[in-house]
Amino acid sequence: MILCLSAMYASGKYSSRGPALIPRMKTKHRIYYITLFSVVLLGLIATGMFQFWPHSIESAADWTLDKRSVHDAPLVHLPVSSPIPERGDLSCRMHTCFDVYRCGYNPKNKIKVYIYPLQKFVDELGVPISSTGLSREYNDLLSAISDSDFYTDDVTRACLFIPSTDVLNQNSLRIRETAQALAMLPRWDKGMNHLLFNMLPGGPPDYNTALDVPRDRALLAGGGFSTWTYRQGYDVSIPVYSPLSADVELPERQPGPRRYFILSSQTAIHREYRAELERLKEENGEALLLLDKCSNLSQGAASARKRCCKGQVYDYPHILQESSFCVVLRGARLGQAALSDVLQAGCVPVILADSYILPFSEVLDWKRASVVIPEEKLSEMYTILKNIPHRQVEEMQRQARWFWEAYFSSMKAIGLTTLQIINDRIYPYAARTYEQWNNPPVVKWSSVNSPLFLPLIPPRAPGFTAVVLTYDRVESLFRVITEISKVPSLAKLLVVWNNQNKSPPEESLWPKIGVPLKVVRTKENKLSNRFFPYDEIETEAVLFGYEVWREFPDRLVGYPGRLHLWDHEMGKWKYESEWTNEVSMVLTGAYFNYLYTYKMPGDIKNWVDAHMNCEDIAMNFLVANITGKAPIKVTPRKKFKCPECTAIDGLSLDQTHMVERSECINKFASVFGTMPLKVVEHRADPVLYKDDFPEKLKSFPNIGSL
User: What is the rounded distance in angstroms from the CA atom of residue 385 to the CA atom of residue 43?
Assistant: First the structure.
């Protein structure tokens, strides 16, 4: 204001000295404009203060730790005449009952979720609307959301609203009063953009498959939906959380055959289903274990972790790990916590619950982790399961365990998965893919980043480097060098001399080739020297099948193919070197040398060097685990003949060599925590490879020369 007044004063002085270019402003008009300008300026200042000052009213009462105690929550009385929401609109879909414009655009494509402050609702007589208040499970759920990237304490930015009223278990609720409490929420607006979590819907005698609390247009994340109550693309089907998940730790078990083929562990099974299971037990004997509650144990937490069969007591859920398949039958409700226990045990669930909407079925492919059988075909269950191939059962066991770890293991996992599904609906262009939802992460250890920094097609230059590991077979070494040097794309040849007791040949004796040849002498005789990232390697590729690798730079590419198999009698993996139609490993390939040298997990490198074996298998494990892809076998070569080798010479001729290669597969699978190798039934051959054409027309006429 001082500057403005000074400017006006200066203009006044100027006009008094000469002709006025602008008519002199009357005093009353000048005062009017000064006052108007002052009001505008004060308004701008006030707007700025409110913009950056902490928000008041609703947003000031954010979901913080000191507001999670129901004892400290403010008391809210519900008048008898309080409005009650409508029952619920079964026709609701995201485009009819959800305001997506409230979510808006944001660079992270992430919805913002607001949690109402905790309040304790009571009726006019002071009786709470819930007999349990805030459960531990719901508190964990809200805490996880408030700690996530979805959460906002600014109600004006929120896309989705979550009441702090706990409706997980309908048995603890007073239906009418809970509905009135929801309608009193300041942003309720007929439930628009509100999300309720419920795991135990309905009550006796009919046990409705959706929450009975009237909820207007609110979305429902429900734990027992049927095809009649589930609003596809609007509601979210969630699992019934098992409290044993937090109290019992079951170590992951390797997939494979188990002691029992089928196991039933539920205690509240309808008598007709139990009679059918007992009949199956009589027909199939020890292959089926039928458990029930223990009548000789006192009721309590301890008895919930026990199951009995003919007086024998079993620990639950540990016993589930002893079976290949575990039965999950419907009870009074469609959703059963037993499903979560079965998945945790890595047992393939056999689900018999007609019209049940499986948890997160909007994004999860349950065919990969379970068997769903109509209830009327319970009598055929054993025959149906016996027709599933062993390898498929093992994959389903692995997938079942991963489903539990990723989506069932905690209230946090359940809550954030639910929000991610809703997020994908609102921002479909940034949604997670089928593979992201259903494929387990291939890297089971945390210290390795993906090495796929290469473009899809590497540049034409400068070719590849051939690395040859040798000990003292000079004649064979020189022959290999001579043949490799004929490859046009060869940029450099590096010989790794692994013999510390003998010097390499003199320079004059080496073959004369058209590319640089470098000899590196190692300090120790170790197989891992083959994969060391030597400074002399300046190219991106180090392999024979260079042109094939150019098309698939994230794959191992090699000639001899090998296979890993599961030995059902021995209960472990086996190495197979016979030529078959299937391949899961190649013995030469494009080497991810840096990762092998510096990022190989566990003690694998030490194991390889100590046994002088399996360095190629370790490389196959490493690359398959990171990329999730199978190797590529190129055109087979003729069997290499070593003129200097004897029957007692060479690693591969040792009697223990093949036995050790089976042992190392089991060792590596244990270290990686999974079996990353992928089985394929194809190979890459050059065009015209076996066609009856003149050799000069073929790009690779010398295939099989080594």
Answer: 75
In whole angstroms, what is the distance from residue 347 CA to residue 253 CA? Answer: 10
Structure tokens, 247? 């109290």
Give the chain's mean pLDDT: 81
Q: Is-contact 160 111, C-beta < 8 A? A: yes
Q: Is the pLDDT of residue 9 over 50?
A: no
Q: Residues 635, 629: contact at Cβ < 8 Å?
A: no
Least reliable range by pLDDT among 148-162, 222-236, 353-367, 679-693: 679-693
Burial of residue 634 (CB within 10 Å: 0-12, 13-18, 19+) is buried
pLDDT of 259: 94
| Sign of the torsion formed by the C-alpha atoms of 646, 650, 652 and 655 | positive
Model pLDDT, residue 54:
36
> 584 pLDDT band (50/70/90 cuts)?
confident
Lowest mean pLDDT among 105-119, 296-310, 614-628, 664-678: 296-310
Q: Which residues of 143-158 are buried (b: 16+ CB within 10 A; e: fewer)?
A: bbbbeeebbbbebeeb
The pLDDT tens digits of the residues spanning 530-581 come to 667 767 676 655 444 556 666 666 777 777 788 888 888 888 888 887 777 7
CA distances in angstroms from 482 to 65, 418, 494, 517, 706, listed in the order given? 73, 62, 13, 11, 10
pTM of the model: 0.60
Residue 437, CA atoms < 13 Å, CB-side half-sphere = 18
Name the DSSP class of 470: E
Residue spans of beta strands (DSSP E) within 425-516: 464-470, 490-497
Residue 386 confidence class, pLDDT cut points 50, 70, 90: very high
∠ CA 446-449-454, nearest 5°, is 160
Q: Which helix (H) or strand (E) holds 557?
A: strand 557-558
Query: Per-residue b/e over 68-77, b at no fewer than 16 CB within 10 Å?
Result: bebeebeeee
Assess contact for 118 and 68: CB atoms under 8 A: yes
Measured CA to CA, the distance from residue 315 to residue 345 in angstroms comes to: 12
Q: Give the C-alpha separation, 244 to 398, whole Å.
A: 20
User: What is the four-CA torsion angle of 119, 124, 130, 133, rounded to 10 degrees?
Assistant: 40
Give the pair of three-digit tokens for residue 72: 């400290």
DSSP codes joined into one string, 113-176: EEEPPP-EEEETTS-BSBSS-S-HHHHHHHHHHHTSTTB-S-GGG-SEEE-SS--SBGGGB-HH
For residue 6, is pLDDT > 70? no
Full strand arrangement of the beta sheet holding 236-237: 195-198, 219-222, 236-237
SS3 251: coil
Q: How much of the chain is helix, strand and coil, in % rounded to 5?
A: 35, 15, 50
Q: How far apart are CA 487 and CA 480, in angstroms?
A: 12
Complete edge-to-edge strand list for the sheet that includes strand 288-290: 288-290, 260-264, 323-329, 348-352, 371-372
The pLDDT of residue 482 is above 70 = yes
Pairing relation of β-strands 306-309 and 312-315? antiparallel
Contact 451, 556 (CB under 8 A): no
Secondary structure (3-state) at 440: coil
> Helix (H, G, I), strand (E, B), or coil: what is residue 606?
helix
Per residue in 560-569, pLDDT (tens digit) is 788 888 888 8
